[in-house]
């Protein structure tokens, strides 16, 4: 399937862009956050993509990072969460926000997304809590630059989770990896890192590890 795409933006709408790739126009649907990050009409853009195939429709969805794309795939696996709902959650929380909400069991944060009710939000948290740490540990590498991929559509046969991000993982991902290497369960470590990150915005890896270890220390 089409794994990433780059070309000139010919048209922008509220929830999608038309990207011209060597004379072929690709309609790519994006979250609100991704739309805001894209350049203006006439400029070049590069996005990772996921292709939705149904009996009566083919739709491309675009993401600025592989982590965002993987969250989309996970969200779509939850009962009652379709592509529109997934993009709404990604637009409201972003990849880091989704990971933090799930790790902390904060379904109210998920419910803040447009069109997401409490039952769906609770299902997202409950069904993805064991899968969240793996995605959180991926980090958030940027999409390939248009200069690197100008006018190319690249087929991606491997799953997104198995494709390394171009840039290294961020502090939260590195802290999570360190804690799991110390023997903490992925879910337990993810919750501690998410809480530490929420309490210390912009903290580096070492600070997050120290804060998470304090949270994981036995009480009493």
Description:
The protein is 46% helix and 20% strand. The chain is α+β, with helices and mostly antiparallel strands. It has 3 domains: 2-64 and 143-157, Nucleic acid-binding proteins (OB fold (Dihydrolipoamide Acetyltransferase, E2P)), CATH 2.40.50; 66-136, DNA polymerase, domain 1, CATH 1.10.150; 171-215, Orthogonal Bundle (Helicase, Ruva Protein, domain 3). Strands 1-2-3-5-4 form a 5-stranded mixed beta barrel. The N and C termini lie far apart (53 Å). Mean pLDDT is 83; it is low at 146-152 and 154-166.
- Looking at CATH, which topology of the largest domain would you report? OB fold (Dihydrolipoamide Acetyltransferase, E2P)
Quickly count the domains.
3
- Average pLDDT confidence is 83
What's the CATH architecture of the largest domain? Beta Barrel
Strand runs, count: 6
Q: Can you tell me the overall shape?
A: globular
Helix and strand sequence: EEEHEEHHHHHHEHHH
Radius of gyration: 18 Å
Please give the order of strands in the largest beta sheet. 1-2-3-5-4
Beta-strand portion reads 15-25%
The CATH class of the largest domain turns out to be: Mainly Beta
Keywords: Cytoplasm, DNA damage, DNA recombination, DNA repair, DNA-binding, Hydrolase
Subcellular location: Cytoplasm
Domain Helix-hairpin-helix DNA-binding motif class: 73-92, 108-127
Region (Domain III): 169-220
């Amino acid at each position: 399937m089409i794994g990433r795409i780059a070309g000139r933006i010919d048209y922008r709408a509220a929830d999608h862009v038309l990207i011209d790739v060597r004379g072929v126009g690709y309609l790519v649907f994006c979250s609100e956050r991704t739309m805001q990050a894209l350049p203006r009409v006439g400029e070049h853009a590069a996005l990772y993509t996921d292709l939705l195939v149904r009996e009566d429709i083919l739709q491309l969805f675009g993401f600025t990072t592989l982590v965002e794309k993987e969250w989309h795939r996970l969200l779509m696996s939850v009962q009652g969460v379709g592509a529109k709902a997934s993009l709404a959650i990604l637009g409201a929380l972003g990849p880091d926000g989704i990971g933090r909400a799930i790790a902390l069991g904060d379904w109210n944060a998920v419910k803040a997304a447009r069109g997401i009710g409490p039952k769906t939000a609770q299902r997202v948290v409950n069904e993805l809590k064991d899968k969240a740490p793996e995605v959180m540990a991926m980090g958030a590498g940027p999409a390939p630059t248009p200069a690197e991929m100008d006018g190319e559509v690249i087929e991606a046969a491997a799953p997104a989770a198995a494709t390394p991000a171009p840039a290294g993982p961020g502090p939260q991902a590195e802290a999570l990896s360190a804690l799991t290497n110390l023997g903490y369960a992925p879910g337990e470590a993810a919750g501690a890192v998410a809480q530490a990150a929420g309490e210390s915005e912009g903290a580096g890896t070492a600070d997050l590890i120290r804060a998470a270890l304090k949270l994981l220390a036995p009480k009493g």
